[in-house]
Every structure is written in C-alpha cells, then in structure tokens.
Write a structure and sequence with these properties.
Helices cover about 55% and strands about 0% of the residues. By secondary structure, the protein is mainly α. The chain has 2 domains: about 120 residues, no CATH class; about 60 residues, no CATH class. Helix 1 runs antiparallel to helix 2 and helix 1 runs parallel beside helix 4. It starts with a helix and ends in a 6-residue tail after the last helix.
Length: about 190
C-alpha cells in the first residue's frame, strides 16, 4: 500500500491536517492549560481548515467563522490540494482531491459539533487574561460584554478594575489567567 503513489499522495495531503488536529488535541488533554489559548487554537484550527476549501476571506469574529456555511465551498478543480505536480494519473488525482475535500468537510462538521454554542461570550473572556488586564490594552469596564450579568456595585467594581494594574502581583500568576484571578480573589489591601 505504501508503494502505491496514490496512497502516498493521499497521506501527503493528510499529514499536515492530522498534525494540526493532533497538536490541538494534545493541548486539550493537558492538565495545565490556558483556557483562552485553547479556544483561540481550536478556532484557528477550524478556520484554517475552512480556508482550505473556500475563497480567501477575512472573518471579523469567531461567530462569523462558525456561522459560515461550509457547504459554500469552491468547486473541486479550484481547491488547491497541491497534488497537481505529482506524477499520478489525473483521474487518480481528482479522486484523491474528492476524498480530501470530503475528509475536510467531515472534519469541519465534527469540529463544529464540538465548538461551544456561546463562542462570542468565550471570546469576550480574552479581556481577562493577565496580559490584557495588567497591560495597556485593558478594556474599560463598561466595554465588557458580560458586565450586565454583574449584580453588585458597579462603581466599586470599576474602582477595583482600575487598581488591578497597580498591585505587585507574584510573578507566577502573570502567565496564568486562573492563577491571576485566584490571587485577585484572595487579595486584601491595607484597608481590609
């Protein structure tokens, strides 16, 4: 089977895709991972596979990526699978392209089924990463999409939100969103 040029061609097509999927899968199996990075990597995988089947385009949000109709793909002849340069008969190349497209379509369907339905809320959680909260890109509290769910004193919350960057946080929390917010939760200033 491995000496068959058609099989080699199909495996050459599959290798980078499977490699991408394995990389993201290993991240999900990790015990210590950044949830925001997982979501970004999962959406990046989904979008990169989607872009292999359609005209290049820019998506403004992850919701736009997930809402895109995957059945609106290019005709088989227009999809670049980088198989045309092989010495395999053109009918075999067309068959491999069809198998490849079908594989990618099924992979998109399976990934889409595993994407969370509240992707836009999860995307908005990126503003809670240490780099963002403690950095110069920090959003104003009123811009946070999940703020309407807060039922406490918004004025006090805004004051605390502004003070986050003024505290000297331990180095070990600066790279981990969960550890940062655990430290914020247990933080007490001199007045407490």
């Amino acid at each position: 089977m491995y000496s068959n040029p058609a099989n080699r061609l199909y495996l050459a097509f599959l290798q980078p895709v499977v490699s991408q999927v394995n990389r993201v899968n290993k991240m999900f199996e990790s015990d210590n991972c950044n949830v925001n990075k997982l979501l970004v990597d999962l959406m990046s995988l989904y979008q990169s596979i989607l872009l292999r089947l359609m005209m290049p385009r820019t998506f403004s949000t992850w919701k736009a990526v997930t809402d895109f109709d995957v059945n609106n793909h290019l005709p088989l002849q227009a999809v670049d699978f980088e198989l045309a340069r092989s010495r395999v008969d053109s009918r075999v190349v067309d068959t491999i392209k069809k198998y490849g497209r079908d594989f990618l379509m099924q992979l998109l369907t399976e990934l889409r089924a595993r994407l969370p339905c509240n992707i836009h809320h999860l995307q908005s959680l990126d503003v809670l990463t240490p780099d963002t909260v403690l950095g110069v890109r920090k959003s104003r509290l009123q811009e946070l999409t999940f703020l309407p769910r807060y039922s406490g004193d918004v004025g006090q919350l805004d004051e605390q939100w502004q003070r986050l960057a003024t505290v000297s946080w331990p180095r070990e929390v600066l790279d981990d969103t969960e550890k940062l917010w655990m430290a914020v939760h247990s933080h007490q200033d001199a007045s407490e």
